[in-house]
Design brief:
Elements (H helix, E strand, L loop, with lengths): L1 H10 L19 E2 L4 E2 L5 H7 L18 E5 L12 E5 L8 E5 L2 E3 L8 E5 L4 E4 L3 E2 L6 E2 L9 E8 L2 E8 L18 E2 L3 H14 L8
Parallel strand pairs: 1-9, 2-6, 10-13
Antiparallel strand pairs: 3-4, 5-12, 6-8, 7-8, 11-12
Bound molecules: S-adenosylmethionine.
The site of S-adenosylmethionine (SAM) has 17 residues, from β4 and β10.
Length: 214
């Protein structure tokens, strides 16, 4: 099923190809996409939720630029919980409350155990899974073990008639204390306690107790 969706995304020009620029350190086995890809199993009511009627007030006038971020392998400090994986870093100072990029992937409503599946609607069970296709957003780590608190957050936005999940710098007043994200700083969100609790119980069922790095 996912293979067919990847092929469809490639045909529609949303996927990577040698003619398109793919960011540095992008894994070759993952499809790089520039817009949402919709699972062909989504129902018409789920699709209507994902395409709300646009209104001039709602329509986002800001287009994020992927030049704001870079994907980096994590080689230090040795205590970094995602050591030897990748993370997403700011290439310049990002002001408080500003949009960084959208989290892209496959919009779906199937159960998923993917580590790259971000919930868009809990009520409808719709998620954005970036395990097989996505953009730089899939490299954003959870702040735990990296810094005292998150410096970014996921927040929905409407782009034209598309419902998307934006990644925003924490605004003034939240735990970022209004400073924004400095050049070279790792961009971290909170995945929520549920993400880590879920993984904890999976390991207990397997009878395996690993390090924090999953
Ligand atoms: C959405 S991915 C983030 C990108 C990932 N580091 C990579 O290189 O593909 C989520 C996975 O990253 C790792 N991760 C992210 N934040 C972490 C943290 N604070 N502590 C431990 N592992 C983390 C876990 O393996 C998690 O399942």
């Amino acid at each position: 099923m996912r293979q067919r969706e990847i092929k469809t995304a490639q045909r529609k020009g949303k996927g990577s190809s040698s003619a398109h620029h793919v960011p540095k350190n992008w894994p070759p086995e993952i499809l790089y996409i520039r817009g949402p890809v919709y699972s062909n199993r989504l129902t018409s009511s789920e699709l209507s939720y994902l395409h709300p009627a646009s209104s001039p007030k709602q329509a986002a006038s800001i287009t994020p630029s992927t030049a704001l971020v870079k994907i980096c392998p994590i080689a230090s400090p040795p205590t970094h919980p995602a050591l030897h994986q990748h993370g997403l870093f700011a290439t310049r100072h990002l002001p408080p409350g500003s949009l960084i990029l959208d989290y892209l992937g496959l919009y779906h409503s199937q159960p998923s155990a993917s580590d790259y599946d971000l919930s868009l609607s809990r009520d409808l069970g719709i998620g954005i899974d970036a395990v097989a296709m996505g953009n730089e957003g899939r490299f954003i780590n959870d702040y735990r073990g990296i810094r005292n608190g998150p410096n970014a957050e996921f927040r929905e936005r409407i782009v034209g008639s598309e419902r998307r999940m934006g990644v925003w710098v924490l605004p003034v007043g939240k735990s970022g204390k209004g400073k924004g994200i400095g050049k070279g700083e790792e961009i971290c969100v909170s995945y929520g306690k549920g993400f880590w609790k879920g993984r904890e119980s999976e390991r207990e069922v397997d009878g395996i107790y690993e390090d924090v790095g999953l």
